[in-house]
Amino acid sequence: MNAPHAPETVPQEFWSEIDRLTGAGALRRLSGVFARFIGSLGHAGGPLMLATVVLSELEGRGHSCLELADLASDPAALLGWEAPEWRALAATCGTVPRTVKTWREALAACEPVWCPGDFDFGEPLVLEEERLYLRRYWRDEALVADSVRQRARTLRAIDAHEVKGWLDVLFASNQRHGEPPDWQRLACAIAVRGRMAVITGGPGTGKTYTVARLLALLFALAGDEAQRQRIALAAPTGKAAARLKQSIEKALGDLAERVGGALPLRELTTRMGAARTLHSLLGARPDTRAFAHNRGNPLDVDVLIVDEASMVHLEMMAALLDALPTTATLILLGDKDQLASVEAGAVLGDLCHDAQAGRYTQETLDYAAACTGESVPPQFAGQGGPLAQQTVMLRHSRRFGGPIGQLALAVNDGDTARAFAVLRAGDAAVQWQERASQQSVVALAMEGYRPYLDLVRTDSHDAKPILQAFEAFRILCAVRDGEWGVEGLNAAIEAKLQGARLLPRGGEWYAGRPVMVTRNDYGTGVFNGDIGLTLPDPQRPGSLRVYFLEGDTVRSVLATRLRHVETAYAMTVHKSQGSEFRHTVMVLPRERSAVITRELIYTGITRASQVFTLMSSGGTVLEEGIVRRTQRASGLRGKLA
Ligand SMILES: Nc1ncnc2c1ncn2[C@@H]1O[C@H](COP(=O)(O)OP(=O)(O)OP(=O)(O)O)[C@@H](O)[C@H]1O
């Protein structure tokens, strides 16, 4: 596409500076092209051009808007630049606003900017209060906020006595005097009364255990209607969806044995359809962002459970809420402290803003006490909004009590001293190679991947045990580039494994190659983030297939049909969300980086079920990362309040 002509209102030096910064890698090319496009739409001016470039850069980093307060206070920091770099760019624009008020006035006067309340000409930028948006993010944010508020407010009449009766059947024990409340029982009681609930908690806090009981409770309360209830399970990735279904089925199976004839739970299990990815649930189609399901063609469900909700980005959440009938119940499950989605938005984080504090009104507390017999300590009382009343945080992990859990908690609390103490304690479950090198990471990979490679060489035709062996170990990187990044490590590990004759030499495709899909491919049914293993095709000697493990099911695709894949001995922490490995190795680069944040480190640690190894060169990058929070500009929290 040819860039539109540069607007006359901005001097040529501005565009020269933009080109220079783009050439130097400080800006993505798209930002300059987009600013030129905005400038071509009518009266714009230097401040809007500057703000547009910053907005576009931030969008690429996951922000859904630009806060004018940040623009006024420290624009260079916002971009991760040095102050002189920003000053050089700003100097080409003449007088630049310095306060939120003057920024707002300057932007509001520009033709490509719409301020809600004014006549709407469909301008591409929206200035709402003190935030500048790309129109589609503003629209998505408004849709999510309206829909969530509406759903959270819609409560149905509940017979507390009946709910308590069922909860006593579904849960083994009750709160004992002086003990903390059973948040799982509370979560069921809260969720059952609304059109929406959010259940958040760290790994092993029982989100799936709870939601299985919630489904049983809904089933019990529905009476004759239960036979007609349509329940759907979904998650952002195929693997997470399969895991959700497997865990719910197991939990319902265990529960069925306990409750016996009191509830026909096996019937509930058989009536639950396959767990789907959100893309497939909504009816994604090739070459368009629009889904088959939307307000005009809503989903055919009564209860929708979405797991790993931290990975759901703003656009996807808006599409989901748009397609969900207002009469359906939405239950979001996820860990609010995990990394947000790669794409714009930090929706679960925003929705869970009050989760830690509770902020339950007296009405909620009375309702919860009547339904559960549990009493919530006074520190969780408050005047939270409708969504806070429908949000429950599970606070007790049953799987994560040991050193891995202690490390995850310390990191989550931003307590570097405690984190270092756990790392240095020398427990077998948490190991730290403080002076690691690329060679030591490669050596660890050789050891960790050997079991699956040994199985590959047996020429077994059973892919499942090989996939399970591969799933037991993983190298996770914080960055993509460099010798400590995904690219450098994959090349080094592959070369070493070939050198040791654990892998065949040469060729892009070989038996044993793990791959990650990098783009959705509707033809082959594989999606961005899916991980598979290349193995010989038993039906066609000499050809290779890529096998994917989803829960208990294995499916495969001819290797040559997969066009968008990369080798995956090492993968990013981002892409590892929704997965768990027996032994997880996290590699932190030597160089400082703004992408290494508390959320990233926490997410990496919590991927390990039995052993966590940290590979780093010294402790500075780790220490700075634990302190650095992911900050994503968004107006959602404000709109939900
Ligand atoms: N109240 C409970 N009583 C007994 N066991 C429980 C209880 N809650 C959870 N568990 C057990 O703890 C383990 C973790 O629970 P679950 O898988 O539901 O956690 P989760 O929060 O969904 O974890 P993840 O985020 O890793 O998916 C499971 O084995 C589950 O059966």
From TrEMBL:
Q: Does the keyword DNA repair apply?
A: yes
For this protein, what is any one GO molecular function term? DNA binding
Where are the membrane-spanning stretches?
none
**Disulfide bond found in the keyword field:** no
The EC code for this enzyme is 5.6.2.3
Question: What InterPro entries does its record include?
Answer: AAA+_ATPase, Coronavir_polyprotein_1ab, P-loop_NTPase, RecD, RecD_N, RecD_N_sf, UvrD-like_helicase_C
Superkingdom of origin: Bacteria
Q: Where does ATP bind?
A: 201-208
Q: Which reaction does it catalyse?
A: ATP + H2O = ADP + phosphate + H(+)
Q: Which GO terms describe its biological process?
A: double-strand break repair via homologous recombination
Q: Name one GO cellular component term.
A: exodeoxyribonuclease V complex
Q: Which Pfam families match?
A: AAA_19, RecD_N, UvrD_C_2
Swiss-Prot/TrEMBL keywords:
ATP-binding, DNA damage, DNA repair, DNA-binding, Exonuclease, Helicase, Hydrolase, Isomerase, Nuclease, Nucleotide-binding
Family, per the entry? Belongs to the RecD family.
Q: How does it assemble?
A: Heterotrimer of RecB, RecC and RecD. All subunits contribute to DNA-binding.
Q: Which NCBIfam families match?
A: recD (TIGR01447)
The role this protein plays is: A helicase/nuclease that prepares dsDNA breaks (DSB) for recombinational DNA repair. Binds to DSBs and unwinds DNA via a highly rapid and processive ATP-dependent bidirectional helicase activity. Unwinds dsDNA until it encounters a Chi (crossover hotspot instigator) sequence from the 3' direction. Cuts ssDNA a few nucleotides 3' to the Chi site. The properties and activities of the enzyme are changed at Chi. The Chi-altered holoenzyme produces a long 3'-ssDNA overhang and facilitates RecA-binding to the ssDNA for homologous DNA recombination and repair.
Name-wise, this protein is RecBCD enzyme subunit RecD
* Annotated organism of origin: Zemynaea arenosa
Organism lineage reads as: Bacteria, Pseudomonadati, Pseudomonadota, Betaproteobacteria, Burkholderiales
